[in-house]
Amino acid sequence: MAEILVLVDHADGAVKKVTLELLTKARALGTPSAVFIGAGYDKASEKLAEYGAAKVYVAEDGELDAYVTAPKAELLAKLVADTGAAAVLVPATAEGKEVAARLAIKTGSGVLTDAVDVSADLIAEQSIFGGSTVAHSKVTQGTPIIAMRPNATAPEAVPAAAERVEVSVELTDAAKLAKVVEKVVLPKGDRPELTEASIVVSGGRGVGSGENFAIIEKLADALGAAVGASRAAVDAGWYPHQAQVGQTGKTVSPQLYIAAGISGAIQHRAGMQTSKTIVAINKDEEAPIFELADYGVIGDLFKVVPQVTEEILKRK
Amino acid sequence: MKIVVCVKQVPDTEAEKRLLPDTLTVDRESSNPVLNEMDEFAIEEALKLAEAHGGEVTVLTMGPDGADAAVRKALSMGADAGILLTDPALAGSDAVATSYALAQALGTTEYDLVILGSEASDARTSLVPAMLAERLGLPQLTFASKVEIDGTDITVNRLTDYGHDVVKAQLPAVVSVVEKINEPRYPSFKGIMAAKKKPVAQLDTAAAGIDAALVGAGAAATAVVDAAQRPPRTAGVKVSDDGDGGVKLAEFLSAKKFI
Ligand SMILES: Cc1cc2nc3c(=O)[nH]c(=O)nc-3n(C[C@H](O)[C@H](O)[C@H](O)COP(=O)(O)OP(=O)(O)OC[C@H]3O[C@@H](n4cnc5c(N)ncnc54)[C@H](O)[C@@H]3O)c2cc1C
Ligand SMILES: Nc1ncnc2c1ncn2[C@@H]1O[C@H](COP(=O)(O)O)[C@@H](O)[C@H]1O
Predict the structure, then answer these.
(1) Contacts of residue A295 in chain B, CB cutoff 8 Å?
(2) What's the pTM value of the predicted model, to 2 decimals?
(3) How far is the C-alpha of B226 from the C-alpha of A128, rounded, in Å?
(4) In angstroms, what CA-CA distances link A111 with A41, A115, A243, B98?
(5) pLDDT in tens, B141-188
(6) How near does any CA of chain B get to the CA of A52, in Å?
(7) With an 8 Å Cβ cutoff, are B252 and A134 in contact?
(8) Which ligand is nearest to the CA of A243?
(9) CB distance B230–A135 less than 8 Å?
(10) Are A70 and B140 in contact (CB under 8 A)?
(11) In angstroms, rounded to a whole number, what is the distance separating the alpha carbons of residues A315 and A313?
C-alpha cells in the first residue's frame, strides 16, 4: 500500500492529539508514515508507534525550525518525491495550512482545508461556511494535500513499528528568508488544549475584566474543560489570544460549549457552531447566541456561573 | 516605499453563505459583495507604514467586473491607486491559481512590500499569502500582529499557538496581518470624494502575462464533488434566571451526562 505522509504536530516532542487523529485516518488510506520535524523525537516515538506509524521520517536539524514554514515544506516536498506518497495529511492549524500551501506550489498539487473526514478514495468531507454546509471535495492534480481539523476523529491506538528513518534536506536560500529570532512562549497551565477539549467554557465582554475570568476558569475546572474567549475579551487584554474562538481564532467542535457573556456575533459563531451541545448564559434575551443554544439561561453570569459551578462540584 | 495590498471582495459577512447547487461555487449573487473585513486591517497597516516611512499604497484585487467596489473602498480609506485584475478566464480559480494570477499581476508593478489579510471570510482557507510568498521567492511574514520597518529590515510578531515568534527579514517581503494589528480607519467624506479621481488600472490575463490555461475553474487542482446545507441549528430550551438558573443548568448538564 502507498505511504500516507502525516505531518506531526508537537511541542518539543510532546505529540498533539490531532497527530493521533491523522494517523488514525491515514490508516484507512494507506500505510501511515509520520514526519517528525524538530527536536524531541525520543519523547514522541512511543506515541507515534502506539497510534500506528509504520515509519517515522525524523528530521531533527535545528535549521528546519529556524525559519517560517518554508523549510518544512521543502522537506515534505522531498519526501513526497522520494516516497511517491499517495497523500499528505497536515493538521488544519495556521502553521499546518501554511506548510500545505507552500507544499502545494512546490509539488503542483491541490490542497483541501478544514477536512473533518476523508474516505479511502481520498474524498474529503469539509465543514464550510462556519459549519452550515457540508461539502465533499477531491484533489484533481498532484499528490492530494489534506488539512484535517482537530477533534474531528476519535484516535484509535493500533500499534505499528514506527521504524525510524533519518531524513535531511539541503535548504534553498529561498527557505531561509524569514528568520525566527525569538520564540515567545506563554505559560500554558494545566487545562486541556482548546481544540482538543471535549468541553469548552468561553467568556466574552460580559465577563468584564481579566480578574473576573477566574469564575469562568472555576466552571471550566469543575467540568475538566478548556477555557475560550471571544475576540472582545481578548482585545481587552483579559485573556491571551490563543484562547480566541471564532473566525480568526480557533475553530472548536467539542461535545459541550458554554458561552458566558458572549453575544454570538457571526465571527464568533463561525468557530463554535459545530459543537454538539451549546449552552449560553447572557443577560440579554435577544442575544443572537440564543438562536443556536440547546440550553440558554437568561441571566447575570456573575450569579449563574458560580451557582452552576457549585452545583457541579456538589453532584460530583 | 511602494506597498501593494491584495484585497478580496467577498459575500457580506453577515449573510448566510451557500454553494450554488449546479456549479458548486460560492453564491456571490444573493448577498451584497463587500471588502473582506480582514483586508481592511491590511490596508490600514499599509497606510500607517506609508505615513511613517513615506511611500505609496496600491491595492490589487482579482475578481469579477464589479470587484472594483472593494478597490474604491480602499482608495477612500486613503490608498493611492488600484489595480483590478479581471477576466472571464479567471472565474472559478482556486487558491493555487489565484496565487499564480496575483504573482503575475504583481509583476506588472513595483513594490517593496506586499500586504494581505490572513484569511478571506468566504472560503476561509488562509492559503493565498503563503502561496504567494512561495511563488515570489520572498520572505513569508504571515499572521503578523505587529510590523516594524527600519530601512530594508522588517520585523514582525507572528502569532502562534504558543504565543508569538519574532521574525526578521529583508524587504521586499510578503506580510499577512491578523485583526489584532490595528483599528482600520473609516473613509472620510473627503476620502470618498477623492477616491473617485484616483487611478484604477484594469488588467486582463494577457496584460498580466497570465497563461489562461493555468487559471479558472478548468485548471483548479481541487473539485467539489457534492455539497449539502446542514439544517440550521435551532434554539432549544431558554430559561430565565429566577435565582436558580445555575441549578437548572446543572440539571440539564447532568441529564446530558456532562456531570
Ligand atoms: C475580521 C474580524 C474577525 C473577527 N474574529 C472574531 C473571532 O475569531 N472570534 C470572536 O469572538 N469575534 C471575532 N470578531 C469580533 C466579533 O464581530 C464580535 O465583535 C465579538 O465576537 C464580540 O464579543 P462578545 O460577544 O464577547 O462581546 P459583545 O458583542 O459586546 O457581547 C457581550 C455580551 O455579554 C452580555 N453580558 C454583559 N454583561 C453580562 C452579564 N453580567 N451576564 C450575562 N451576560 C452579560 C451582553 O448582553 C452581550 O450579549 C471578529 C471581527 C472581525 C471584524
Ligand atoms: N482574488 C483575490 N484578489 C486579491 N487578493 C486576494 C484574493 N484572494 C485572496 N486574496 C488575499 O489573500 C488573503 C487570504 O485569502 P485566503 O487565502 O483566500 O483565505 C486575503 O485576505 C487577501 O488579502
Answers:
(1) 236-239, 249, 252
(2) 0.94
(3) 12
(4) 28, 10, 27, 13
(5) 999 999 999 999 999 999 998 899 999 999 999 999 999 999 999 999
(6) 26
(7) no
(8) 1
(9) no
(10) yes
(11) 6
